[in-house]
Amino acid sequence: MIKSILAAAAVMFTVGTAQAQTFEGATARFEFLHYDDGAGFTLSQVNAGADAAFRFSSGFGVQVGVNGMTEVASSDPFLTFQTIGGVAVHNFYDVSGTTRLGALVAYDTFNGGDWFLGAEATYVSGPWRLEARGGHYFSSVEPAWLLEASGSYAVSDRFRLRGYLRNIDYGAGFGYYRLAGVGASVAVTDQISFYGDYALMWNDFGKPPVYRGSVISAGLTFRLDGAGDSDRMFTYKPYY
């Protein structure tokens, strides 16, 4: 499945080269995440991902990303740790110098293989960066709808405040998973930034109780700007 998506991305890139094609930028991310359900269960994982984006003279473009996660610690001594990988392809169109619209198809190996199809947008202007996404996880185990939004504000050239909301709804009485987080990032160079986020978490498995806990994440990002601005690139994080 992953090979099929990468092959499709290669076809789109080849078609795009019939026009003037420009390397916009690339990003990489390494993150440590700690989940606490508020009732005694904890789980820690390490996430990593990388993306590259290309724009064509027509205003269209493509962004391709790979990602992975491995669980590294838990309060449950009998838990079998998972390692999951995935790939995502974003087709986008720049409506203006500040607004980008995109369509996303992604696949990961969670639950034996999940597909995600969605629509997304970014808005970058002055100190503001906003991003929103909605779509559906196609899964034989946990099909769900996703709706999320994030934003950041540059207090200075090196320091940004950030926040996000995420809702995953399983429907049909099977519950939901929700996050509301705030954080900050510090750029130590033009390419490298460190960040930390704290989120309140609500996890409903379709029957009482609803777990109310937290998710703490910290990591670093690396950006390489080409002819464009990598701030406009999408920042899709799969749900494992």
From TrEMBL:
It comes from Maritimibacter fusiformis. Keywords: Signal. Residues 1-20 form the signal peptide. This is Uncharacterized protein.
